[in-house]
Amino acid sequence: MITSWDVDTVGDDVLSQPPPLSPVIKCDNPDCKEWRMDANRMKAQRDIYAAEVKSLRCMLQQRIKRNRKRMNQRAEDQERVFLRKRSRTESTPKRLSKSKGPSCRKSPIASHTPVSSSSEPASIDTEASSSSPPIHSPWFSGRGRGNRMRDITFPRIMEKYLQGYRDHYEGIDPTVRLQENAVSKISRVKSFLSFMAHGFNRLSDWLFLRDLKRIRGWSRSLIKSSLQVTTSDFYIKNISHFLKYMNETPCKGSRLNQNDMILITREVAAIQKSMRKKVFIHQMQVKRDKMEGLPSHKDIMACLTAAKTRIPQLLDVMTSNPTHATRSLLYGYMTLNWSCIYGHRPGVYSNMTNTEVLKAEITGTAFGHLIHVSNHKTANAFGEAQMYLTIEEFGWMKRWLEIKGTLTGTNNRYFLCIAGKNP
Questions:
Q1: Which of 116, 184, 278, 343 is the most exposed place for a label (fewest CB within 10 A)?
Q2: Is the dihedral angle over the CA atoms 5, 8, 9, 14 positive or is it negative?
Q3: What residue ranges of the chain have pLDDT lower than 70?
Q4: How many domains does the chain have?
Q5: pLDDT score of 110
Q6: Does residue 361 share a domain with residue 276?
C-alpha cells in the first residue's frame, strides 16, 4: 500500500534552484549611513587589534616555553644535595665556640667531592672514580666542630623542617652545651638523609626513605666503620628520635603515608634490637677495664693527705704572689680532694658557681656544708650533684673566694675560674 508519505510531491526543478537571498534594504536616512560607516570603521580596527593580539600570543607562548625550561632546571637543582662552600674564616660556628676546631681527616665527601671555586655550590651527586669509596658514605670526616657534614644543604623546605627539629631539641632555654649537641645531632641526621637520598632526583617528597634495604646498608656501614659499637648505636638512636618526630610532625610536601612511617620506624627499631648484644658486651668490657684501672685504697689516702697539706700552702702563695701556675696547682689539688671522696665528673667542679658556694655557707651547720651543683651533664637524669665538705675543707673554698675578689680580671661567676665568662 502506498501512502502520501511515500510520494515525493516536490519537483526536481524546485530542489535544484537555490533559495533566494534576503532582500537588502537600502535606506537613504543619513543616520543609517553614519551607522554603517561606523560599523565598517570598527571592523577595520577589530582586524588590526586581532592581528596584534595574535602576535602577542605567539610571543607569550614562546616566552612561557623558555621560562618553563629554566624553571624545570632550577627545580632540579633545588632538589639536589649540595656541599656549601665554607670560607676560610668560617671554620667553626661563631655562636658556639671562639677557638678553631681540630683539623678534619680525609673522608669520602672531603676527598672525592671538592668544593668548586665558582659561586655555584658543588653537587654531591658528582660521580667519583671507580677505585674511590662511595661518596654517599654515612660517616663523616673530622670530629667536633670541624665536621664537614654540617655544610650539607638540602632543599629549602627540608632545611626549614630540620631547623624546626633543632629548635624542638634545644627547647626554650638552651645552654651552650645543648646548642653544640643540637648541631651534632642535626649533622648526623643530615648524614643519614644524604646516604638515603643518593641517586634520587626529587627529595622534598621524602619518598627516598621507603628503601628499607638502604636503611639496613646504612646501619651495616656504621658497624663496619671505625666507630665503636656504642657510638653506632647512639647514631641510630638519634635517627630513631628524628623519625619519631617526623611521624608526629609530618613535613610539608611529604608524600609518606602512615604505613610508610610504620615500616620505616619498625625497621630502625629492629636494627636497634639486633645491636643490643654487641652493645652490652662492649659496655661490660669497658667497665671491666675501668675497674682494673681504679686507684687502690693506699693511693687514695696518699692523695687526700697530699691535698690536705698542699692546699693551705698554695692559698698562702696566691695571697702573696699570685701566678697562673700556682692557681692551676690549687685547682688540681682541690678537685683531687673532691674526686677521691665523691668521684664526680670534672664538669661538676668546673660548673660550680660562686652563688652555690655562698648559699652553702648560709645553710651550713657546725659539722659541715652541703653544696648543690645544678648545671652538669647528668642533671636531667639525676638532678643536682651534691658535695658535703667539712668545716676545714669549706674554709679553703671560702678563703679562695676572698683571694679571688682581690685579683684583677676574675669577675667570673664560676668558682674555678680561669678567664672570660666560662670556666
A1: 343
A2: positive
A3: 1-26, 71-151, 409-410, 419-423
A4: 3
A5: 36
A6: no
Query: What's residue 414's pLDDT?
Result: 86
Domain ranges, residue 114:
82-289
Cell of 164: 624546626
